[in-house]
Structure formats: C-alpha cells, structure tokens
Amino acid sequence: MSANPQWDISRALGVARLFHLVCGVRDACATPFLTLYLRQLGLAAPWVGILMGTKHLIAAGWAPFCAFLAKSYQKRRLLLTGSLLGSAGASLLMVLVPLLNKDLVYRSCNGSSSATTPVVPARVPLTVSITTAPESAAHHPARRDGTVPGASGLGNRTGERAQETLRAPPSSSLGSEEGARTGSRAPQAVTSGLKASIREGAFEAVSTALAVLPGGPANLSEAKGEARALDLSLQGLRWTFILILVAVVLWELLAAPLEQVADDSLYEYLDFVDATDRYGSLGVWRLLGMAAGVCGIAALVEQPACFWVTNGPRGVVYFYGYSLVSTLASVVSVSFPVPICQRQEPSHRALKALSLVGGDPRLVLLALTIFLVGTVVSTVQNFLFWHMEDHGSGELVMGFSVALGLLGEILLFPFKMPVLRKLSRAGTLGLGLGCLAGQLLYYSFLWSWWSALPVQILSAISSRALWWAVGASIQDLASAGTERPLGTMFRGHFYGGGCSLGSLVGGFVAMRFGLAVVFRVGCVVLGLWLALFLSVQPRLPRERRINYSKLLAVEGSDASDSELGSERDWLVKAMREDHSDWKG
C-alpha cells in the first residue's frame, strides 16, 4: 500500500467497483417498475407521462448544476452520502400515497380468495366493471370499480364519447369468471373509496353511457342517479396526482446528482495518476448490479406472503428495497475515491462544448439523433411493462426481460473496437437505430406473457451500438478539453430532454390510440430518421478538430518524424554554414 492512501489505485478501483455494483442494484429496485406502480395506484397513461416527463427534465438540468457546485466547494463526498440517504427517505414518500380506489388491491391476505387485479387500461380513461347479481344486493352486492384518470384534463364528455370510453377491463385482469362477465341485468351497488363530488358534465357522460347498457335504467334521471352513486372523484384524482408529483420531484432532486458526481470524482482521481484507461470498464459493474437487482426485487414482489403488503399495492416493495440498498450504498460512499487536490480548469468548458455543437453540423445531426432516440426509448421504458401485463406477464418475467438486455450489453463490451472498425461511426449508429426500430415493431405484436424475452438481444445491441457511436464521434470531433463536457451534454441534456418530451407525448398517444400504436409509430419515426441520417451524413463537411493530447501521444508517428527531420536538417545546414564561415 502506498504511503499516501489517496493514491492507492487498487483500493480505489475496488471501492469504485463495489459502489457501482450496489448503486446498480439500488437503481434496479424501483426505476424500471415505477410506472407499473403508478398504474397500480390508479393513474392512467397521460398522468404517468407527465410524471415521468417531469422526472427526466429535472435529471437533465439539475444533475450538472449540482455536480458543478459540489466540485467548486469541494463537497463531493458530502453530496454523495447526502444524495443516497436523502433519496432513500424520499422514495418512501411513494408508499404513503393513497390509492385512488381502495378496491384496487393486488393481493388478498385471505388464502382462500383469489387475487383480484383491476388494472387501468392505457387507452381507457374511465373503467366501469359491471357484474351480475343473482341474489339480493344486501347479501351479495355486485362490484363496480370506477377510476377517472385523465378526466380532469379532458373536460366534459358527450354521450357518444362516453359510449366509446365506457368499457369493461380485459378478462385477464379479473380474478374470477364471474367478474369477467358483463351483465345483462341492472347494476346493484357501487364500491368506491372516493368521497368527493364530480362535475355535472362527467355525471351526464356516465349517465348517458349507463342508459344505453342492456337492462340499464329506463330514463335519464335514473341514470343520473346511478352515475352519482359511482362517486368518481376528480378531487381525489387531483390530490393523488399532486402528492405523487411532489414525491417524485423531491426524490429526483435528491437522487439525480449521484451518478454524475461519482463519475467526475472517479475520473479526476484516476487522471491524477494517468490511470484513466481503467475508467471505461467500471460501467460493467453497474450493469451487473442492475441485472441482479431487477431480478431480485421482482422475485420478492412475486412472493405470496402477505406481510409485504398492508393497505397499498404490492409495488411498495420496490421502494422498501430501494431505501434499504441506498442506505448500504451510503456506507460504501464513505470510502469512495474523491480527489483532494484539484487542477485549475477553465469554468467555461460547458459553454465551449455547447458552442462547439452549434458550429459543427455533424455534432448537430448527432444531437438531434440522440434527442429522437430519447423520445422513442422513453415510451418503451414507461409503458412496456403495461403492455406485458396486459398479456399476462408478472413482475418476475418483466425483471427477467430487463436482466437479459443488461447481460447482453455486458457480453458485447469486448466487441466495441471491432464493430467501430468494421462499420465506422455512421454505420454503428445506423445499426443501433435499426435494431431499436425492429425492437419497437416486435413489441407492438406481443402475443403472450413470455413473448418479450427473445427480442432483448436487439435491446442490448441497440443500446451499446448507439453509445459506442456517440463516444467515438465525440472523441473525433471534440476540441481539447471538451470531451467529457460534450459526453455529459449528450447523455444528460439531449437524451434526457428527449426522454422528457417522449414521456409527455407518449402518455396521451397511448390513451388515445393504445400501446401497440405507440410502438409502431416509434418504429416508423426511427425508420424515417435512419434513412434521412444515412443520406445526409456523408454530405456534411468533414471538419476534423485538432486534439493536442492525441498529437502528444503519437509524437513518434511518420508525420512527426518528417517534421522533426526537416527541422533537424535545417539546423545542421545552418551550423555547417557557420562552421565554414568560421574556418574561412
């Protein structure tokens, strides 16, 4: 061990690997399943899109700002530990958010009763389930579960529109055959956990829909009475959405700076001893941790034990696991390598990187491509599990599908340089876009609970190929000292901004047209952009930036030898002339 523990490289790399592994487990506990949990709470696709769009937007702007402040005031270790502990506490706020409907429970602690899972379809803002009642309502009341996610933002509906939106949930989401049958008799009673009133226009919409059902109320006034009995609460929806929004914003404000601060700290630590060549391999440990974490938390959620769930959906296990692993990661962060000495670097590198993007058409095209990729990928991250759940998949299958993609990315790491040499940067980027388009097209035709598993190889190829091409392009086109600011800008601002926009738009498109249409539209958009990219990219001017660090690294090349040789010849000639003059 060296005399100064600050420069103990072996120990620093070991701690960094453990930190990335634990943080990968932490992220996988809640992030992939967050939208699924929001669906369990009773929110529809537009509200989920707004929440996820806000989350991505905060991460894109807040993380670089916090990283800059932590570096300026030398508070990186404090920020790492505070981010982990703060996000652990903020994530538990999601557990406290009440359900829109108390009947929306995923498991019953009565072992004899089957699980009842009324889900909120992405396309349907209002769900009414009607069951037959062969006996009196006093003994066996039929159940009608109503939620109105999206109703407050869409205004009043006419009777014709209500006929389109009033549907029964798919039979796969009901717990018994009796609950799957839509009745030919009048509904008897309504169970709803919402206590507030609803707008008169919404009453009229539901009333008209009830009036057209077979065996429904005979006149409009009776139908209005049935609609009021539904007790669908826009006020309750608003409060639930506001509580979730506050929890998500606070959680993201605390968690977003962690990854960038850790990466900057470790890179500068290794840069002091010229060991940055070992930095690139540390990303494998985060992927490995995410693969283990997503399978582990999914297996816990699938357990039938009732002590995991109290009054909320079983998805609360995600946040318990996230909080626990965050606390463990905070212990590791105490030993995380943080450089004590800081090199004096210009503070305007981010502005320089931004001006570099604006002045280079190749970087502009690359930035637009990454923004579009973020827009499309966000729809997969937000609603793929919804689509799988609609086809009968459980959390364990969902977690296994994510783990397959992550393990595929790990296996592809040794092929980075061969792929870039064979296909070039443009070809590698085209490969990533093509695989992503094929992946989306496949998702739109899912037919069974296991059908999403085989396509995860395309997920691994698309993700790795895209970021390999981005990294290689930045290395070739960036000027001295702007490589890392450019990389941060592409991953944070451009990709994160695209994810924010895609979440906002994808939620409304999913509600209006369905999830399959969302994936097909994404496939078409990527295909058109791929054709445009391959046609425009070769015609752009080939301006290559001078990277002085590379010139120093290759000072023994042929060009350097020729230049040094010419200078040496000139010096020898001048010395000979002086020597001859002296002799004369």
Q: What does this protein look like?
A:
- Helix 3 runs parallel beside helix 10, helix 3 (45-72) runs antiparallel to helix 19 and helix 18 (456-477) runs antiparallel to helix 19.
- The chain is globular, with a radius of gyration of 29 Å.
- The protein folds into four domains: 10-100 and 237-335, Up-down Bundle (Growth Hormone, Chain: A); 110-193 and 196-230, no CATH class; 349-553, Up-down Bundle (Growth Hormone, Chain: A); 554-583.
- Mean pLDDT is 75; it is low at 1-5, 105-121, 123-232, 554-568 and 579-584.
- Helix content is 65%, strand content 0%.
- The chain is mostly helical and 584 residues long.
- It has helices spanning 9-30, 34-41, 45-72, 76-91, 151-154, 159-165, 177-180, 200-211, 220-230, 234-255, 257-271, 283-302, 316-333, 349-359, 361-390, 395-412, 416-443, 456-477, 483-513, 515-536, 548-553, 558-583.
- It contains 22 helices and no strands.
Map the helices and strands:
Blueprint lengths: L8 H22 L3 H8 L3 H28 L3 H16 L59 H4 L4 H7 L11 H4 L19 H12 L8 H11 L3 H22 L1 H15 L11 H20 L13 H18 L15 H11 L1 H30 L4 H18 L3 H28 L12 H22 L5 H31 L1 H22 L11 H6 L4 H26 L1
What labels would you give this structure?
single chain; 584 residues; mainly alpha; Growth Hormone, Chain: A; 65% helix; disordered N terminus
Oligomer: single chain
Radius of gyration, rounded? 29 Å
Low-confidence stretches: 1-5, 105-121, 123-232, 554-568, 579-584
User: Given the helix and strand composition, which structural class is it?
Assistant: mainly alpha
Quick structural summary:
The chain has 584 residues and is mainly alpha-helical. The chain is built from 22 helices and no strands. It is globular and about 60 Å long.
